[in-house]
Amino acid sequence: MSYAFTQDVPIPWAVYQQIRANLGDGAPEGLVVHVVIETEKGLRYVDVWESEQAFRTFVETRLHPAVATALAHAGVSRRPEPQSHPISVREVWIGKSRAV
C-alpha cells in the first residue's frame, strides 16, 4: 500500500536546493513522486512513496543528515519536524517529460 502526504516546511527555496544537493542525484528507494510547491510561508511537499517504511528509512538514513548539513550551512537552527498530513492517493500518472 502506498504512503502519501503533504508537508508545509518553513524554509526558503535556497535551503531546499542545498538539501537536494546534499542528497545527490539518485532518487531514494521507494519514492514514487516528490513535488515541491512554493507558498507564502515556505514550501509545501506532496510525496507519494511505495510504503511508509520506505519513507521512514529514507528519512533516517539520508534526509535528516542532509537537512542538518544544509541548515548548519545556512545558519538556521534545527526546528522540530514539520507535521505531515496523510493523503489518500488513488492514482499517480507520470508523463515522460520530467522538465519543470
Descriptive report:
There is one protein chain. This protein is of the alpha+beta class and 100 residues long. It has one domain: Alpha-Beta Plaits. The protein contains 2 helices and 4 strands. It has helices spanning 13-23, 52-74, and strands spanning 3-9, 31-39, 42-49, 84-86. Strands 2-3-1-4 form a 4-stranded antiparallel beta sheet. The mean pLDDT is 93.
- Number of helical runs? 2
Q: Helicity level, as a percent range?
A: 25-40%
**H/E order of the elements?**
EHEEHE
Number of strands: 4
Radius of gyration over all CA atoms, rounded: 14 Å
* Major sheet strand order: 2-3-1-4
Query: Which structural class is indicated by helix and strand composition?
Result: alpha+beta
CATH class type: Alpha Beta
Annotation keywords:
100 residues; globular; four-stranded antiparallel sheet; Alpha-Beta Plaits; alpha+beta
Short description:
The protein is α+β, with helices and mostly antiparallel strands and about 100 residues long.
What is the topology?
Blueprint: E1 3-9, H1 13-23, E2 31-39, E3 42-49, H2 52-74, E4 84-86
